[in-house]
Amino acid sequence: MKVIILAGGLQSTISHEREGIPKPMVDIGGKPLLWHIMKHFSEYGLTEFIICGGYKVDMIKEYFMDFYIYDSDITVDLKNNTIEVHKKRTEDWKVTVVDTGLFSATGQRVSKIEKYVDGDFLVTYGDCLSDINIRLLVETHYHEKKLATIAMVKPSGREQLLPIDAEGKLDFSNAIRVENDHAWINGDCFVFSKKIFKYLMGNHDLEKELFGKLTELQQAATFKHYGFWTAIETRRDLVEAENLWNAGIAPWMKA
């Protein structure tokens, strides 16, 4: 199963060191946020990725083109213009980077990579870290037999709540008032059937248009994740993630 990563938003403003870069390329422990996300999925045997780029997509392309150099020791012979790589270290990944446009909405970005997808697939955002059990998420998707399965996580207090009814199903038809103990938010990690592309016409967001349509058709399943989840949206979020990594207790990495 391929993993689609939405990495096309505008420039990051959360890193003082490297302003003007795509947010998925901000550093956490010397590695781009994008690498941390991909590493989590690869721990479940998922090694094929499609990156939906936009703002400065060339920076993402260059990172993967030179990936093995970043993680290896090298000797550069300036006179002869040669590079010798010592102890080459890399990842067993296959990465496709696609320019999906600067101002495309999330649904349109996914629709633009249809030709690279040959079956059901995962979609996640390029600014979220979690310890979501991807194996259980995918198993839930196949068990429910819906067009989409949406990972739900507990809110930190600043996110928009998902409208979940008494049976645990999505209900976008009415505004539902919930107490915090029963509140859930979109975890920005989804499993989609390949049939989903017929519903991705036009420049619209996954959450605003697609999920509402799928709930009307009773084609949206949910997966509750009770563990760690964070969106890297502010400088504070970045520092907290960096501290977890430096302490050797990053929840998104298996021990």
Automatic annotation (TrEMBL):
It comes from the Bacteria. Pfam families: NTP_transferase (PF00483). GO terms for molecular function: glucose-1-phosphate cytidylyltransferase activity. Residues 2-155 form the Nucleotidyl transferase domain. Keywords: Nucleotidyltransferase, Transferase. This is Glucose-1-phosphate cytidylyltransferase.
